[in-house]
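Page 42, continued from yesterday. The earlier attempt failed because a stray header line got pasted into the input along with the sequence. Redoing it now with the clean sequence only.
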Amino acid sequence: MPNLVSLEDVKSHLRITGDDENADLMAKLQAAEITILSHLTQRDDGTWETTKAAWTEATAPRAIKHAILMQVGEFYLVRGDDAPAVDRPMRGSLSPVVESLLMPYKDPGLA
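This time it went through. Structure tokens are written below.
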């Protein structure tokens, strides 16, 4: 699947100008896309998975692209070495901002 967000967009979102972190940012971008897309649920009549798979950087909904950028930012900020006192959502959960961006793409009847 092609990236739905470009590395340049990620760097702009995070206000990074150099290229030293490109490999790390690409890994975080790929992980963020998988995370976001796995949280999108719809009752599937056989077309939902095909629709998601067909999205490109040019055709993906803006809210989905923004959710991916927000998730990359979360992965960039929380690298696993933060102090236990850092206030973060439970592991495995998305931030409330990301959840609200994804709400139109989630079927409330599905987990």
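Notes: The helical segments are 7-14, 22-38, 48-54, 62-77, 96-102.
Reminder to self: strip header lines before submitting.
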